[in-house]
TrEMBL record:
<keyword id="KW-1133">Transmembrane helix</keyword>
<feature type="transmembrane region" description="Helical">
    <location>
        <begin position="144"/>
        <end position="167"/>
    </location>
</feature>
<dbReference type="Pfam" id="PF13853">
    <property type="entry name" value="7tm_4"/>
</dbReference>
<feature type="transmembrane region" description="Helical">
    <location>
        <begin position="246"/>
        <end position="267"/>
    </location>
</feature>
<dbReference type="InterPro" id="IPR017452">
    <property type="entry name" value="GPCR_Rhodpsn_7TM"/>
</dbReference>
<dbReference type="GO" id="GO:0005886">
    <property type="term" value="C:plasma membrane"/>
</dbReference>
<keyword id="KW-0297">G-protein coupled receptor</keyword>
<keyword id="KW-0472">Membrane</keyword>
<dbReference type="GO" id="GO:0004984">
    <property type="term" value="F:olfactory receptor activity"/>
</dbReference>
<protein>
    <recommendedName>
        <fullName>Olfactory receptor</fullName>
    </recommendedName>
</protein>
<keyword id="KW-0716">Sensory transduction</keyword>
<feature type="domain" description="G-protein coupled receptors family 1 profile">
    <location>
        <begin position="45"/>
        <end position="297"/>
    </location>
</feature>
<feature type="transmembrane region" description="Helical">
    <location>
        <begin position="29"/>
        <end position="52"/>
    </location>
</feature>
<keyword id="KW-0675">Receptor</keyword>
<keyword id="KW-0552">Olfaction</keyword>
<dbReference type="InterPro" id="IPR000725">
    <property type="entry name" value="Olfact_rcpt"/>
</dbReference>
<feature type="transmembrane region" description="Helical">
    <location>
        <begin position="279"/>
        <end position="299"/>
    </location>
</feature>
Length: 324
């Protein structure tokens, strides 16, 4: 016989309680200080990137537009989780409302889906700039850039909205204690009184398809870039291209490796990997890229570095007189 439908799921918990990092409660204060420093760096760095690109009319190339959007997404991604983490680690204020929990989960999923698409867009930009330099402006027109940005956003919304709907409609009639420092999908799903496997399988398959396809296209782009670079006659030009692309690949590795390890460890290594290691991996996956992206792109992109230094020098040393 079929059991009753989900009508008694109406016992929606008013709040969940986030544990933080299980087993590392004694290190919570140190973690709060570290996270605060990283979050401040992410906010300041990404804000500077956005401000410089928006203010400087010479930075209107497609790559800088993509970097500006990437900086905004990084701020959203870090802001979705870090303030609450710091609150838990500092004061033990671990409660989060049902609605806030699933809102946080949705923003985390959507921001990461948009970020992987933007990293693919940056890789495509570098492919066109290095392999087809004479056609760069005719290929990456403003209309094409807008279309790519809208497509990336729509893909994230379409893929992540069903996931949030599925898990938010599960019944939670048992424990409301989430053994994590934010509302991570698997950690919350395991608290459900019904079978959470449909939403978990959807999450795994959807993430694997999106990230897998993006990584394949990124790898193909940089393979073609490397082939073109090694065909250049000038060693200086080779080094310049390799340096720029190397920093981009480093950024992508920082985003993809912790993220994919975190996802597959949660599925395959639950019993062999300590819970605090799983939680730390998931936390760092959302905090390290937003912190390091502006540093790497800001320091490794010559035009951007010069504009940032000019802006900083202006604010530090430009003191207009009273009469001005």
């Amino acid at each position: 016989m079929l059991g009753p439908p989900y009508n008694h799921t109406m016992e929606i918990p008013a709040t969940f309680f986030l544990v933080g990092i299980p087993g590392l409660q004694s290190s919570h204060l140190w973690l709060a200080v570290s996270l605060s420093a990283m979050y401040t760096t992410a906010l300041v760095g990404n804000s500077i990137i956005m401000m410089v690109i928006c203010m400087d009319s010479t930075l209107r190339e497609p790559m800088f537009c993509f970097l500006c959007i990437l900086a905004a997404v990084d701020i959203v991604m870090a802001s979705s989780v870090v303030p609450k983490m710091v609150s838990i680690f500092c004061s033990g204020h671990s409660s989060i409302s049902f609605q806030a929990c699933f809102t946080q989960m949705y923003f985390v999923h959507a921001a990461t889906a948009v970020e992987t698409g933007l990293l693919l867009a940056v890789a495509f930009d570098r492919y066109v700039a290095i392999c087809k330099p004479l056609h760069y402006k005719s290929i990456l027109t403003p209309r094409v850039m807008l279309g790519m940005s809208v497509t990336i956003t729509i893909r994230a919304i379409i893929s992540m909205t069903p996931l949030s709907w599925m898990i938010s409609h599960l019944p939670f009639c048992g424990s409301h204690v989430v053994p994590h420092s934010y509302c991570e999908h698997m950690a919350v799903a395991k608290l459900a009184c019904a079978d959470p496997m449909p939403s978990c399988f959807y999450s795994l398959i959807c993430t694997s398809i999106i990230v897998g396809s993006d990584v394949v296209f990124i790898a193909a782009s940089y393979t073609l870039v490397l082939r073109a670079v090694f065909g250049l006659s000038s060693k200086n030009a080779q080094w310049k291209a390799l340096s720029t692309c190397g920093s981009h690949v480093g950024v992508m590795a920082l985003f993809y490796l912790p993220g994919m390890v975190s996802i597959y460890v949660a599925w395959l290594g639950q019993d062999s990997v300590p819970l605090h290691t799983q939680v730390l991996l998931a936390d760092l996956y959302l905090v390290i890229p937003p912190t390091l992206n502006p540093i790497i792109y800001g320091l490794r992109t010559k035009q951007l570095r010069k504009r940032i230094m000019s802006l900083l020098m202006f604010f530090l040393f430009h003191h207009p007189s009273q009469g001005e």
